[in-house]
Amino acid sequence: MAEIRAQGARFVARLAGVDTRDGAARLTGAGIEVERAALPDPGERQYYQADLMGLAVRNVEGVELGRVDHFIDAPANAVMVVRGEREHWVPVTPQHLVKVDRVAGTIVVDWPADF
User: Fold this and answer.
1) Is 44 domain-assigned?
2) CATH of the domain at 70
3) Is the pLDDT of residue 90 over 70?
4) pLDDT tens-digit profile of 45-83?
5) pLDDT value for 67
6) Do 32 and 54 lie in a common domain?
7) Which of 1, 9, 51, 66 reaches 20 to 30 Å from 79, CA-CA?
């Protein structure tokens, strides 16, 4: 990787050996891996999706919803897909993401169990 920088909520990367728009366009849809040490620390109440994968999720009423399975990048915001007895699609917004405790491996969300 030649260069990486934050641009809003995403990152822009310039890759070594890719010097034209056509060269970059050929990589559309390709995965790019970056060493964790090269990424900036997330800010307060910000998380890398990879850090939330597999964490146990319960709602503010204490109902266990399941574990974070994956994320979907929707137009308005990311959605956390939680799988347990049923599947829950929880918007990843400050309103819904109440508390993340990576040490305990838990996430508390403001999301009804029956939704």
Assistant:
1) no
2) 2.30.30.240
3) yes
4) 889 999 999 999 999 999 999 999 999 999 999 999 999
5) 98
6) no
7) 1
Q: How far is C-alpha 15 from the chain's CA centre?
A: 23
Residue with tokens 């929880």: 90
The DSSP code sequence of 30-98 is ------GGGSPPP-TT---HHHHTT-EEEETT--EEEEEEEEEE-SSSEEEEEESSSEEEEE-STTTEE
In the chain, the number of structural domains is 2
Tell me, yes or no, whether 82 and 102 share the same domain: yes
Q: Cα 7 to the chain's mean position, in Å? A: 16
Instruction: Read off the amino acid at residue 2.
Output: A
Rounded CA separation 7/73 (Å): 16
Identify which of 98, 100, 99, 101 has the alpha carbon closest to the alpha carbon of residue 110: 98
List strands edge to edge, sheet with 64-73.
87-91, 78-83, 64-73, 56-59, 106-109, 97-101
Summary mean pLDDT of the chain: 90
